[in-house]
Write a structure and sequence with these properties.
The protein contains one helix and 27 strands. With about 350 residues, the protein is mostly beta strands. The strands form three sheets. Strands 3, 4, 5, 9, 10, 11, 13, 19, 20, 21, 23, 24, 26 and 27 form a 14-stranded mixed beta sheet that branches. Strands 1, 2, 8, 12, 14, 15, 16, 17, 18, 22 and 25 form an eleven-stranded mixed beta sheet that branches. β6 and β7 form a beta hairpin. The longest helix is centred in the N-terminal third of the chain and has 5 residues. About 45% of the residues are buried.
Length: about 350
């Protein structure tokens, strides 16, 4: 059951839930800043650095960022915001947040709060509701290929532990400059399909032409990513998602098994019932086979609820972008899946 990577949490939720929200007053300025990269609270580059303790308010086509003193730090028009690649497809940069590894994400009333060491470092108030309700957030299909290979099971009644191993594959042999590729296992709520947990292996995020890893959490059109770690072709990767009772929430962990480095997020937003699970190859702007990495074998996958193993009857789905053919999937068992690239 891969017990050596199973994670045990400390109890700190009482301190977290005791902190109240103090939202700032509306700003009067109409000077808009161009935002082309995620908001960053961990110094991640590239990133639009904002102060620890900031509050981000989304209202219609406007995103405002207030500092910890409640003064306006910046504001941007979402319709003029840069589009960036994420494991959820192409998204507006103003809805993507880089947060320190180990951060905890919780909902407190109408706001989402991010904590580091028990202290609120970010509050997000999205007055636009779900992403589809905000036309400024809509991205045309030409900006992103999406999940081009996946195995899925939409009918997981109960789950509190999921893990998988895979190896960093060969890099795309002749990629287009803007192509970004992702490999991950994931858990999503069902019905609803508005929350997803993902430990993600990434290639060429922001044009780096290297492999990196992050843990991602998304809810209702807002996207949170832990600090990046660099990985190398041939490194073994563990993607772990574990529900911990003391936390009343999930650990999302991306680990490089060669170096022992981890990057993680925790969240108390998602429960353990009515879930879906996935193994996925995603690409943005791929138009030929040489834009894709080599084949990837997900193995030693474990799915459990209350320490009892769960069988996953995988269903394969391939969505080949125009110009790409020959993709294939081999399902060996509940614990082993090959996402094939010829």
């Amino acid at each position: 059951m891969n017990g050596n990577i199973k994670i045990f949490a400390t109890l700190f939720m009482a301190a977290i839930l005791a902190i109240s929200i103090n939202l700032p007053v509306e700003a009067q300025s109409t000077n808009y800043q161009q935002v082309n990269v995620p908001f960053s609270l961990d110094g991640e580059s590239p990133g639009e650095n904002i102060p620890l303790g900031s509050t981000i308010i989304h209202n219609g086509d406007i995103t405002q960022v207030y500092g910890p003193d409640n003064s306006l730090f910046l504001q941007a028009q979402d319709s003029n915001t840069g589009i960036i690649s994420t494991p959820f497809g192409a998204k507006k940069a103003t809805y993507v947040y880089n947060i320190p590894s180990g951060s905890h994400i919780a909902e407190n009333g109408d706001a989402t709060q991010v904590y580091s060491n028990g202290v609120v470092i970010l509050t997000v108030e999205d007055n636009n509701g779900i992403e589809s309700a905000n036309p400024a957030n809509q991205i045309t299909q030409s900006n992103s290929n999406g999940w081009i290979e996946q195995t899925k099971d939409w009918s997981v009644s109960n789950l509190d532990f999921s893990t998988g191993l895979w190896t960093v594959p060969s890099s795309p042999p002749n990629p287009s400059p803007s192509v970004v590729d992702y490999l991950f296992n994931a858990i999503q709520n069902n019905p609803g399909q508005n929350i997803i947990l993902q430990p993600v292996l990434e290639w060429n995020q922001f044009g780096t032409h290297i492999w990196t890893g992050q843990s991602w959490y998304a809810s209702n059109g807002n996207y949170y990513a832990s600090s990046k770690i660099n990985v190398a072709v041939g490194d073994g990767i563990s993607g772990v998602m574990q529900y911990v009772g003391g936390l009343n929430g999930w650990y999302i962990i991306f680990q490089d098994n060669r170096t022992g480095q981890q990057t993680s997020i925790t969240t108390s937003v998602l429960g353990t019932s009515n879930l879906a699970v996935f193994c996925t190859l995603e690409s943005g702007l791929a138009s030929k086979l040489s834009d894709l990495p080599g084949s990837t074998l997900f193995t030693n996958m474990t799915f459990q609820y209350q320490n009892n193993n769960i069988n996953i009857p995988w269903v394969a789905q391939i969505n080949s972008p125009p110009g790409i053919s020959g993709l294939y999937i081999v399902i060996y068992s509940s614990a082993s899946v090959l996402l094939g690239v010829p």
